[in-house]
Amino acid sequence: MRLPVDDEIYNVNSVWLGPPGRTLPFRARYVAYAVGAVVFVLLQAIERRLGIGLGFFVLAYSVLATVGITRGILALVDHDRPVFSALRTLANEVGAPRADTRLRRVTIRPARVRAVPSRPSRVPPHGRTEVAA
User: Fold this and answer.
1) Which of 11, 15, 13, 47 is nearest to 28 (CA)?
2) Could you tell me the end-to-end alpha-carbon distance of the chain, in angstroms, rounded to an integer?
């Protein structure tokens, strides 16, 4: 169960509704416009690198993909976690050192394995004391 916040700052939703009397058919935060523009430009650059031409349906699908990706990104972003914090977290997760999972080939040569046990030392084992009788 989610409880509503009681902070006044969270009750204010910074959105642009459009000109007075003619509101937009959707509500979007200001950060959504910036993230959407960046996502759209990146999608266009990727499409041009892949050799996809510029046409009506290509742009329409790009706009739809931009809306979906922007909504996905902004589902992770709020007042407590800004966009740059989410991007920094992503960069840290991707760039974190990982354990080496590659298989290593090891050759054991019997000629190099020591078959004779080492000499026992004269020092008593740890924790034991010699009792004089």
Assistant:
1) 15
2) 75
Instruction: Report in angstroms the alpha-carbon separations of 10 from 5, 13, 30, 52.
Output: 7, 7, 15, 43
Cα distances from 19 to residues 24, 32, 131, in angstroms, run 8, 18, 97
Calpha distance 104→128 (Å, rounded) = 41
The string of pLDDT tens digits covering residues 80-115 is: 888 889 889 989 999 999 888 888 888 877 776 666
Identify each DSSP E strand in 24-88 by its residue range.
none
Task: Give the whole-angstrom CA distance, residue 68 versus residue 40.
Answer: 11
Residue 74 exposed, middle or buried by CB count within 10 Å (0-12, 13-18, 19+): middle
Work out whether the CA dihedral 73, 76, 81, 87 comes out positive or negative. negative
The pTM assigned to this predicted structure is 0.58
Number of residues that this document lists for the chain? 133
